[in-house]
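Hi there,

I know you've been waiting on this one. I reran it after we fixed the sequence typo, so this is the corrected version. Both the input and the resulting structure follow.
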Amino acid sequence: MPYRTRRRLFLVMMAAPAVLYVVLVALWPLCQGIYYSFFDYNLIRPNSRSWEGFGNYVRLWSDDTARTALINTFIFSIGAVALEFVLGLAIAFLLWRDDLFNRVCLSLLLIPATVTPLVVGLIFKAMLNADYGVIGYFLTQWRVSGDHGLLGETSTALATLIVIDAWEWTPLMALILLAGLKSLPTDILEAAQVDGARPLQRFRMIILPLLLPSAFLALVLRMMDTFRVFDIIFVTTAGGPGDATNTLMIYSVKEGLQFFNIGFASAIANVTTICIGVMAAVFILVVRPAGERNG
């Protein structure tokens, strides 16, 4: 057997386990979800499955709860990513200088990102409880929040979840942006400073354009993650109060695992996947070309 053929065969054999894992764990369930979304399929009556076509998708767009879940998902995703980007960029600038103090602060900063989102949700649910929470009790007493706490009021629940998500994932955003800052060419910044450019001018005309590739990576990763958020919302509010924090993933899980409506739940999950793809494409078309031009 020729060397080139043996080398290709070796590479194929090395990649085969990973490809098989992706097919079994990701691709096959995705195909099943697409298939089931075209049927009226309920596990309570599994033998009476009937073809629905696009009926589940039509029901999705005409359902008030589904529309509310879609709006909440966009609000949560855009709000969380925007807040994390602003805070992460500010933290990255504060830690840009390479010294011992900043390295220690960076190590401590990454602690929230290492905690499981489920645990983060449980911790904040306990702290924000209006009856015994170390934060929620005093907020209620001072009339900052209502009698049910920040997570129990329809007007504050979603905003509170955005802040909780930002607390956990802002360090990751800061780490990615900090890596981008440290890779910037120092000679350009020094030349701009010598030419008399003010800090705001250097940020707007040099730093921000050169930072766009790192910003693109951070924004896409966090946008994809926040759009399919489930853990934090499930353990804190479970989509309540009412439908104030009901998102597409929460609604899909309720339909699939609580009401056993697999067809409709699959349609919701597929719409979530499509929305993630569309938002990622928008970032690719808008942010990435600008970063490549400036790079």
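Quick highlight: The mean pLDDT is 88.

Best,
R. S.
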